[in-house]
Amino acid sequence: MKVLVATVKPFAGAAVSKIKEVLDESGYELKLLEKYEDKQQLLDAVADADALIVRSDKVDSEVIDAAEKLKIVVRAGAGYDNLDLEACKSKNIVAMNTPGQNSNAVAELALGMMVFLARGGFNGKPGTELRNKNLGIHAYGNVGKYVGEIAKGFGMNVFAFDPFVNDADIEKDGIKAVSSAEELYKKCQYVSLHIPSNEKTKASIGKNLLSIMPGGAVLVNTARKEVINEKELLEVFKEREDFSYISDIAPDCSEDIEESFDGRYFFTPKKMGAQTAEANINAGFAAANQIVAFIEKGDETFRVNK
Ligand code: 3PG
Prior knowledge:
With 306 residues, the chain is of the alpha/beta class. It has 12 helices and 12 strands. Bound molecules: 3-phosphoglyceric acid.
């Protein structure tokens, strides 16, 4: 069995070693394609692969068509908006993610960016504190849970909205469940986004929610830039001098924001929420194990294209 690990943004070395260990044990071969610049390199590399591990790398129908022997693709991470699930299904290829494996890393970045902004980018001038501020968690999944846990450590008042999670499951973590997105945004000076990017959520965060946030509003995005309505985001930036946006990866309209709204934004140069050795090891190890379990026993536990 040939397993291709194709990552434009490579895993930490320790994660690759861990993947190799798992594959060696089953007599599988590891093929590594890191930092590729050209899609053709992926198309060539995937041609003889039985299994594929990726991160945010785009696996579209062209990649699937080139992958003549492929049986399974695992997105080592949570969001699988980079996989063409239908294309996989049409070729009988199982698609999986590794939920929860990199969540703590993403949550730490969310809080880290909040502190960074609250302290003026560590510019030495008086900033503000997170204690006693309201934080709204928009979607209470694996990352949202960690954000809540860490934020409580900061002494924040934590609220969450998630239509797919029972209030009781939120409240047992000491977090107040609210019944609509509007209620969350109205209540919380800080809102941290943890919704996936899909047809329903794309461009769903706009003026209707951002304009009702309390004074000193800060939107924190470690989810996907696509969930933001950028035209309306810019309008909110213009209309509210007290509004800030911090995001793990710059929005398409970053130049407009950087030009006019100094001190009210922070964007990572590269998506780096999951860029820790620990997260890479967890997600890579899980991906390799899931491939072995599927090939050897038909285990489809983390399948996302049933
Ligand atoms: C995820 O969905 O798991 C994160 O966004 C991580 O993405 P990455 O593997 O590209 O860093």
